[in-house]
Each structure stands twice: as structure tokens, then as C-alpha cells.
Amino acid sequence: MGLVWVMTGVSSVTAEDFEEIVVTADKAMGRTVTAELITGSGFLLAPVPDSSDFYYLTNKHVIEGSRALAVFFSSNGEIFQYNAKVLHTSAGLDLAVLRLSPDGDTLPDPVFLPIASRDMRKGEPVAALGYPGSADEIVSNDANPALFETTLTQGAVSKVFMGTWVRDGSSLEIVQHTASVNKGNSGGPLLDSCGQVIGVNTKISQETPSGFPTNGTFWASSSNSIAGFLSIVKVPYYVENSSCGSDASGASGSAMTRGVPAWVYIVAGVIGVALIGGGVTLFLTNKTQGATGIKPVGRGRKAALRLRMAGSPDTTLTAGQLKAGVTIGRSSENALVVNQEGLSRVHARIDLQNRVLRVTDMGTTNGTTVNGQKLTPNTPVQVTTASDIRLGGIPLKLAKPGKS
């Protein structure tokens, strides 16, 4: 199983409106600028150990093809520049992780935004932070600090669904909302009322399939999709354990997490959308320190499912882990490591979506079957504890905890 690193000194922010939230979140916000003068948004994920560098998240389409990258932060009227190196990208999720190194003075009192670990609720209030190019139009000159001050907009979650950013692309969980975003907001966070990131703003509605213009429809990759990507590429991040709005005041803190595999995808489509990267040029395509304690995932949490496979100890999973998705294979990065001939490095993925348990073959050589039917790669299929699941011919047994 993966491990959860519990970080002391990190607390959640709870407020009835976003006035308190934005004061804190602004300290994590950076304006991404490419050598081609394309701009976007992004935010700090975590410090890079034993350095003054940071991990930073933005959209892939913001930085794609650039010869050089820089990220600018504003603090107390001063501007701080960081040089950026691309570490990991995902075309399907349109996400990119950058490593930022200071070009001069280091940013004082950086904040690392926590990634929400929960289901989003239709109608819940949200806020978008970023650097829309439309806000630059009346700025007096290029040296104006207002260029590096975020724009805040508010709205609500309209719906949460599975879709794709590009036709025939990988499917992911998407949050549709009404917090207005524009070109330049790409990569910026969609925040809930507790200051947690529930999405990365990526696209806006351009027109309906019939050609009518639309307003007030904006889309973000969900926090579940974000967490899955970061876990697969093994980039640390903070995750808030509260559900926000119901028991946020009882949150015990945040956790830095890795080793939780990616969100499971299904095939779907989104029509009539435009990337929102590129502030001026449209480009298509509380400082935390303290002791770290280590404890196994699932300790103190209610077990939901047990995985059993020959050659590996039984693995018990919580509902939260299943919602994020878990992988099985020979590599140590998997939740269930089975070192048997016939299995691929990352062979299959299991997740829980809308109370439906699913298994996905990850494009393996020897394949995955459910009840004798070979699965189409990267296409999830519903399963139950009674299903006959075989990975490369090796049986995988799903059982409720306490059952044989």
C-alpha cells in the first residue's frame, strides 16, 4: 500500500465567504509566462525537499512548446521571479507539473494549496483565482504590479461528470461551474469555501453544437483527477481530509500524499469548448514546516473492499482510496504489488464511481478479462465481488472486509 505523510502545522481554512480564503490562497498563486509571451495561471503544490524550490501545477496547454518558462509571484507589493522546468505532463488531463527555482530573492511565506479529497456537491459555492488577460487591458504599463495580482470570481458547481478535453482523448472527472474565467485563467485553482482546490480551470464554453453562443459555462479538471495524476508521477501534494461545509471544523490537518494511483477514465466527449490558456495571446492546443509522521493508509478509516491475489498479501482499501483509484501490477508504485510472470508493470486499475465498482485494463500485453470477456484497454467495466476477474490469466478476488 501507499503511505500518507501527515504534516503538522498545516490547518484548513473555514469561512462563510471567500474574503479570508483569498488572502491565504493568493500566496500560492503564480502567473506563468512563456518565452513567447503567452501567460496562464498556476499554484504551489509543495516544497521540494532540501531546497528553496517548489512544485507547481498548471495546464499543459499553457506551457506546451515553449522555449523557456518563468513564474511570477506577488507579495507585499514586490514581484518574485522563479525559473521553471517542466517535470511531468498529461495530455489527456491537460496538466503539467513544474519545478520552480528562484531567480533572485525567494518568495516569503509561501502557501501550498490543499487538494480536496471528496465528492463535489452540485450547488456548492466556488471561487476561481487566476490572471485573465482581459484584466490586463486597462493596466497602465508593463511594470504595473497589478499585472501580478489575481482576479477573483465566484459561482457555484453546476454539475460533475465524466468527459474529455479533446475528441477521442482520455476521459476524466470534470467540474462544471459558474465562476467566470477567461483566457489566462488556465491552470488556476477552483476553490471551495474551505480554501481547498476542487479543480484546475481549463476550458470555457465557446458555442453550442448548433452554433449559438453561450455564457456562464466553465470547466475544470476535478481534484480527484488532479490527485490521481500527481500520485502516478509521484509529486507530493497536500490533501485536506475534511468534506468542507459539513465537518470542516473538525479537520485535524492536512496530509502530504503520494502513491495513490490515478482516476479511472471512461470514454465521453465535450463539444464546443475553448482552452483558456494564454492571457493576452490565446494558445490552443501559511508556509508549512514541522515533523512528519508516517502511518499506513487506511488506519482509523472504515475498510470498504479487500483485494486478494496469489503471490501477494491481501490488501484492504477504504472508500476514499477507491474513489481516487488504485492500481495493480509488478511495480512498487501500485497499491497491490504482485510480482508474477504475465502481469505488466501497471496492469489494471480499480475505482469506485457513483457507487459503481469498476476495473480497467491499462493497455497490457496479456490483457484483463471479466467473466471470460477480454477488456478493451483503458475502458472501465463494472464489476462486483462475484465477478471472475483475471489479470494476465491470474485470478483477482474482490471481497468485502471480513469475508473470505
From TrEMBL:
The keyword Membrane is assigned to this record: yes
Keywords: Hydrolase, Membrane, Protease, Transmembrane, Transmembrane helix
Classification via SMART domains: FHA
Keyword Hydrolase: yes
InterPro entries linked: Chloro_Bact_Ser_Proteases (IPR051201), FHA_dom (IPR000253), Peptidase_S1_PA (IPR009003), Peptidase_S1_PA_chymotrypsin (IPR043504), Peptidase_S1C (IPR001940), SMAD_FHA_dom_sf (IPR008984)
Family matches, as Pfam families: FHA, Trypsin_2
GO BP term (any one): proteolysis
Domain of life: Bacteria
Domain FHA: 326-375
Transmembrane portions of the chain: 262-285
A single GO molecular function term of this UniProt record: serine-type endopeptidase activity
Entry similarity comment: Belongs to the peptidase S1C family.
Name by which UniProt lists this protein: FHA domain-containing protein
